[in-house]
Amino acid sequence: MLVALLTSPFQVLRLAWVAYRSRYRGREQWEVFRVMTAFWLKINFAWARKGSCRQRLFNFEVEGSSYELLLELFKEIFLTEPYAFEPATTTPLLIDGGANIGMAVVYFKKHFPQARILAFEPSPEAFRLLTRNVAANNLRDVELHNVALAPAAGQVPFYTEADGATLNGSLRPYAAGVRTVVVPARRLADYLPVATPIDLLKLDVEGAEPGILADLAHAGLLARFRHLLVEYHYPIGTAESPQLAACLQTLSSQGFAYYFQLVYPRTAYGQDVILHCWQPAT
């Protein structure tokens, strides 16, 4: 705490610089500075933490398992903005595969208040927070499903960190900790409305992306999506590495153009990239 006190003037300047460099302007720029300052205070000083782990950001209140997690998600989703896109309508239909605690759902509702969202999250702990965050903010037209998305329906093992501190999880046994829970798996195709174009599919499902995309393509449904934002978890130098080529081939065969965005550093597990995909004719 002493170090935090001594460096506080420099921290204020750093946080002001973060707000200045963000794409937000005017009152929203001040809001970024306020939120970042609140996170810094709550992480470093016990007196700033009151009650449950919640933080007000813009016109929403989000609850998480820790302030460190909330800060990480806020920076990743609201400041880096990998999920920014331009829908063709003011009432877009969005699918959030891997919704975690709902920070992306809040982001989408901030920018598209009239959007209809289908959100999927397999982790029981994350889903409880997701449900509370949707209810606390009175988010309408948000449909929640506590299932893992997969190419086939059934039951699958879901691997999480032993302490559950970050709420990270994966269908890959080596990509998380040591605790295992069995969760229901469902095909995304079974949830899609009939003959309705879908404005966005956001996928962050820790390695299940290639199978889900291939299943949608095989069912003749992938071309109904106008935009895809796929966080692809590329396990460099493993037996799964060739799946990236297969994934790109699936996208190309369905008429999608795409580009890569690197927003995360390489880790021991591989390199995470975001695939921005769209139908050129739309």
| Average pLDDT level | 87
How many helical elements? 8
What share of the residues lie within helices? 25-40%
Task: Give the class-level CATH name of the domain at 85-278.
Answer: Alpha Beta
**What oligomeric state do these chains adopt?**
single chain
**Strands of the biggest beta sheet: in what spatial order?**
5-4-3-10-11-13-12
Query: Main beta sheet, described?
Result: 7 strands, mixed
Low confidence ranges? none
- CATH-defined architecture of the domain at 85-278: 3-Layer(aba) Sandwich
Name the beta content range: 15-25%
CATH superfamily of the domain at 85-278: Vaccinia Virus protein VP39
Examine the coordinates and then state which fold CATH places here, giving the name of the CATH topology of the domain at 85-278. Rossmann fold
What general outline do the C-alpha atoms trace? globular
Per DSSP E runs of 2 or more residues, the count of β-strands stands at: 13
Gyration radius from CA atoms, angstroms: 19 Å
The secondary-structure class comes to: alpha/beta
N-to-C series of helices and strands? HHHEEHEHEHEEEEEEHEHEE
